[in-house]
Amino acid sequence: MRTAALGFQHVLAMYAGAILVPLIVGDALGFTSEQLTYLVAIDIFMCGVATILQVFHNRFFGIGLPVVLGCTFTAVGPMIAIGGEFGITAIYGAIIVSGIFVLVISQFFGKLVRFFPPIVTGTVVMIIGLTLIPTAITNMGGGEGAADFGSMANLSLAFGTLVCIILLYRYTKGFIRSISILLGLTAGTVAAMLMGKVDFSAVQEASLFHIVQPFYFGMPTFEWSAILTMILVAMVSLVESTGVYFATGDIVEKDLSEEDLSNGYRAEGLAIFLGGIFNAFPYTAFSQNVGLMQMTGVKSIRVIMIAGLMLVTLGLVPKIAAITTIIPTAVLGGAMIAMFGMVIAQGIKMLGGVISQTPGNAMVVACSVGMGMGVTVVPELFQHFPAGIQILTSNGIVAGSITAIVLNIVFNMKPKRVQQPTAMIDQKSA
Q1: Cα(176)–Cα(14) distance, rounded to whole angstroms?
Q2: Residue 41 vs residues 53, 201, 202, 288: alpha-carbon distances, Å
Q3: In a 10 Å sphere around its CB, with 0-12 CB exposed, 13-18 middle and 19+ buried, how is residue 406 labelled?
Q4: Cβ(16)–Cβ(179) below 8 Å
Q5: C-alpha–C-alpha distance, residues 329 and 163, integer Å
Q6: Which of 26, 46, 167, 186 could bridge to 31 as Cys pair (CB 3.0-4.6 Å)?
């Protein structure tokens, strides 16, 4: 019973992060309540599967550490952009290919990590967070095309939810603080219910049990720009996961070998691949569960396995998933400000210790963020370029990421010409 309670605590700690991704993406792409319910359910189910794959250590995959996997926020902006341009089937085609890519490079990624130092990953994470803020602001007003957009009711719910999250984060500690987003969403939805702005029809119509099915939204399609975008997302997620692996290894006092890391990357690639097949999302190791482990002092793999099994079970019950879909858009927008702002803050935190290490690092950040945001705001800038080049320039996140990688090589990795000592030069002149 105690193990089950500890496992459920881990589910609660990651639940808000898990459900927000499908809710945001589904809302942005105009999904029906039935489609949104499936999207949330399959996402929760696959979070459980991904966690079990990672915990279940064997010679082929699984790092064997008490880590919980969930869908990465890094993928939200890119998936919305891909879905808006090519449709949802292109999202899943790109996810499938990125999963295969991770499986292929898992043995060698330890050597590729040097191309993704904090100056690059921090910049990419910050760009992604910045590109998501307009979505949050739009939702605070009630959502794109809402008849009551910007009404006092919507703004009251949005800011009320945000204030509730801020107060919980400021004045609580431990586990309560770790689920402040979830509690804020609950409080905002209750307030909306009292205002008559919650529709329960999706819960009533949802079935009690369902079987997951592959390609629910149609057969995947494959677009080069979408594939490249999701591969970049996967690479950044692997770097984030690497940090979580080492943090968890330190907690359980286990030294990680190169083989351990490869098995971890392989499990993540398999989870991403399966996510594409079953119309879920890319996955990464969740740092909030590491924080919970530090607070409770419980380091058992068995507890995390129980949490994974709970997620799988919850994902098979659409009625539970449907409850999350009744959250009003304005309430979701209020929580998004905090969540996406934290993404930006995480990027800044990653950059904080390295931006001043070398003179070139500030230029890497400046040009990459400028290029990423510029292309996001004016996507037609490179419309006359050849189609092959537009793959790299049509998406602000890709353009910013490529800029960061290239400039990091130029400033930090390219061999510099070694100057001869002055005395030696003088001798030659003599």
Answers
A1: 12
A2: 19, 17, 13, 21
A3: middle
A4: yes
A5: 16
A6: 26
User: To which residue do tokens 């309560």 refer?
Assistant: 176
Q: What is the pTM of this model?
A: 0.74
Cα–Cα distance measured from residue 62 to residue 50, given in angstroms and rounded to the nearest whole number: 10
- From first to last of its 430 residues, the chain has per-residue pLDDT tens of 677 877 887 887 778 778 888 988 998 888 888 889 899 899 999 999 999 999 888 888 888 888 888 888 778 888 988 998 899 999 999 999 999 999 999 988 877 777 778 888 888 878 878 887 888 899 899 887 888 899 999 999 999 999 999 999 899 887 788 788 888 988 999 999 999 888 888 788 878 887 888 899 999 999 988 898 899 888 888 877 887 887 788 778 887 788 888 899 999 999 999 999 999 989 888 876 776 776 666 778 898 999 899 999 988 988 888 888 888 889 988 988 887 788 788 788 888 888 888 888 999 999 999 998 898 888 788 888 776 566 567 677 778 888 988 999 999 886 655 444 444 445 454 4
